[in-house]
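Example for tutorial group B:
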């Protein structure tokens, strides 16, 4: 399995380099000049990435500082362990906070949640001691270890991690939109992971840093998010289920947590690859849960939608920075050989998951009101593949309707009327789904356009008609325009088929 993951990682790496190169060249083309390109986000991202990689490699392989911080008392290792554990939590905190785009949470409330979780984690030990006093502990027998992983690890840890979230939910007014449930739950999980990561990083002399960053911390966030997602859906979509959401989802999270740990812990079955596959699927599910709760925000507005289009590259740079700084740390503690062995092993075994996370976590599709299925219905095997080609939301982009290309007969004179007043300028508004097409938008024209009794300025739907362009590309390309009988469907993210009528095709471009 490890060889397969390595081969997949190599293939993924090549594909990602091609994707980065494509975006790099597109950014250069759009900049118009080399000097302007040097100031662009894409140039900065590439420059930072190269610095993060080559400077540590240069230091490790051409200086004499290897092992200068080695000490018998382990003080330097302890400092490094705390620093990297905090860095891991801060990095994932930055990522989740970036999704909180409509109603930003105060840092004080989030810090309090994190701090409470750093304290409540110590409740794990008396619960473990109690179970052990009853003779319930890991013993290598599969059935016993399975139940211990579910109850002795999963149930106890998920119960402890949910306490800070429940305190914030009941005693503060900050958890006031759907995404806040996952946000505060994730911050609580990061506090728990921070304390736990210190122990593991110190025990493994920093060599576990990539595993703690990519697997353990994200898994903790996912399991806690299962509970808080269920509570959010019950509160905002299924109120009859509210009394059952917490206990039911706590059990679900405990079972999933136990399943994750069992294949790593029990040597009799010796199938850690099951955990790897489960982790990939769980990250897809977590991605969809986050996206769904962002979509359900009651604070949604086109003006506040400012999604970071370079998120996937920022994640790559952040993860690379953690990895190569740990590489430097191991060099200072152990020497160049140990550092280079760590770096080689880290990338050989983790490149696929590294890029899987970066590509997925930068592939949100904001469709207000829409709740996506947590498992891909068309092809569940796609859960093991990254979202290379997610369609980024274009809300807020300006477009020009240049001229009519063709018309639909049953819309009468609508096409002719539009043709008579083109060109028209407008702004892409709320994103919706129509007839299965996920790249449709309500178009807000700069000026009112009346077509008989239809007030087209507030009832215009557009979708892409070109496979070679996205809907806001600066080059002229065809789009479809529809009149809307009603736009009530926008509130759940989907326009019913019968509520829109095709007017025709228009030549359009982004401006």
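The residue assignment follows.
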């Amino acid at each position: 399995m490890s060889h397969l993951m390595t081969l997949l990682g190599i293939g993924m790496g090549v594909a990602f380099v091609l994707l980065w190169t494509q975006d790099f060249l597109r950014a250069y083309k759009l900049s118009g000049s080399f000097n302007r390109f040097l100031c662009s986000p894409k140039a900065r991202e590439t420059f930072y990435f190269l610095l993060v990689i080559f400077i540590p490699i240069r230091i490790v392989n051409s200086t004499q500082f290897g092992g200068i911080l080695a000490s018998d008392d382990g003080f330097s290792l302890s400092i490094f362990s705390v620093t990297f554990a905090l860095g891991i939590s801060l990095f994932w905190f930055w990522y989740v906070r970036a999704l909180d785009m409509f109603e930003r949470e105060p840092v004080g409330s989030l810090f309090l949640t994190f701090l409470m979780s750093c304290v409540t984690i110590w409740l794990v030990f008396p619960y473990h001691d109690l179970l052990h006093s009853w003779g319930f502990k890991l013993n290598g027998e599969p059935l016993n270890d399975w139940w211990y992983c579910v109850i002795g690890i999963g149930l106890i840890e998920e119960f402890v991690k949910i306490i800070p979230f429940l305190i914030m939910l009941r005693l503060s007014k900050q958890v006031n939109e759907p995404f806040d449930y996952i946000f505060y739950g994730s911050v609580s999980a990061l506090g728990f992971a921070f304390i736990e990561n210190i122990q593991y990083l110190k025990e493994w002399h920093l060599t576990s840093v990539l595993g703690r960053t990519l697997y353990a911390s994200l898994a903790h966030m996912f399991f806690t998010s299962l509970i808080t997602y269920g509570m959010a859906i019950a509160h905002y979509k299924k109120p009859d289920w509210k009394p059952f959401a917490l206990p039911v989802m706590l059990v679900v999270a405990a079972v999933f947590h136990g399943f994750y740990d069992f294949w790593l812990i029990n040597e009799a079955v010796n199938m850690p690859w099951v955990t790897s596959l489960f982790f990939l699927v769980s990250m897809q599910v977590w991605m969809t849960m986050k996206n769904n709760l962002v979509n359900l925000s009651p604070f949604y507005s086109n003006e506040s939608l400012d999604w970071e289009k370079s998120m996937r590259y920022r994640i790559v740079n952040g993860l690379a920075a953690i990895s190569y700084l740990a590489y430097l740390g191991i060099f200072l503690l152990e020497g160049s050989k140990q550092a280079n062995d760590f770096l080689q092993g880290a990338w050989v075994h983790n490149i696929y998951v590294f890029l899987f996370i970066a590509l997925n976590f930068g592939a949100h599709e904001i469709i207000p009101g829409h709740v996506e299925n947590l498992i891909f219905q068309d092809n569940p095997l796609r859960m093991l593949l990254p979202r290379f080609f997610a369609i980024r939301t274009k809300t807020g982009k300006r477009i020009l309707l240049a001229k009519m290309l063709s018309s639909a007969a049953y819309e009468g004179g609508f096409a002719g009327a539009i043709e008579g007043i083109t060109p028209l300028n407008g702004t892409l508004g709320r994103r919706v789904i129509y007839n299965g097409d996920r790249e449709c938008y309500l178009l807000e024209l700069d000026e009112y356009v009346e077509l008989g009794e239809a007030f087209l300025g507030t009832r215009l739907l557009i979708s892409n008609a070109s496979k070679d362009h996205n809907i806001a590309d600066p080059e002229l390309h065809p789009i479809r325009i529809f009149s809307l009988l009603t736009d009530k469907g926008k509130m759940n993210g989907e326009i019913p088929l019968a509520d829109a009528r095709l007017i025709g095709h228009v030549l359009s471009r982004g401006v």
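The chain is about 60% helix and 10% strand. Compare this with the pattern of hydrophobic and polar residues in the output above.
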